[in-house]
Amino acid sequence: MAAMQWSVDFYTGLPEIDRQHEALFALVNRLHDARTHRNELLDQAFGDLCDYIRDHFSAEESFMDQASLDPAYVARHRAAHANFIMRINELWQAHRAGSDEAADDLLAFLVAWLREHILITDRKMAVAAHHHLGSDAPHNQFSHF
Q1: Distance CA 30, CA 25 (A)
Q2: Where along the chain do its domains lie?
Q3: Is residue 38 predicted with pLDDT exceeding 70?
């Protein structure tokens, strides 16, 4: 069973961001599948996920800058990204130190944080970007954020 299931519920209306989010789900699921292994398979899955997350966060942050979103909002969004990276690295280090629960804790944190971040924070970013660009979010479905 997949840890994260991609669906239209996670759409932001920003095609490149949505494509990247879908790829993140696949990487989290790969980590989920590898978590029972304490070997290079798990190491590689975590490394690939971290690399992709850094690239994705960089793309989101560049997008926010290009869309001229509110600087205070952008600063909070960047801080959320930095705190996320710090936390997954802490959990990974606990796993590397031999914690039996750390891989499961890491996965649970990834799933919960990414869901909340996409459904709330990234959707707010999308609404602000669409507003700034003079367009509605697709079907105005996120107008309540």
Answers
A1: 9
A2: 14-31+40-136
A3: no
User: What does DSSP assign to residue 3?
Assistant: S
CA distance 14 to 66: 14
CATH class of the 14-31+40-136 domain in this structure: mainly alpha
By CB neighbour count within 10 A (0-12 exposed, 13-18 middle, 19+ buried), where does 39 fall? exposed
Task: Write the pLDDT tens digit of every residue in 68-111.
Answer: 999 999 999 999 999 999 999 998 899 889 887 888 899 999 99
Q: What are phi and psi of 135, to 5 degrees?
A: -130, 160
* pLDDT reported for residue 144: 44
Phi first, then psi, for residue 17 (nearest 5°) are -65, -45
For residue 71, which of 132, 144, 6 has the smallest C-alpha distance?
Answer: 132
Distance CA 81, CA 56 (A): 10
| Structure-token match 């609404």, residue found | 127
Distance CA 44, CA 14 (A): 29
**Does the pLDDT at position 142 exceed 50?**
no
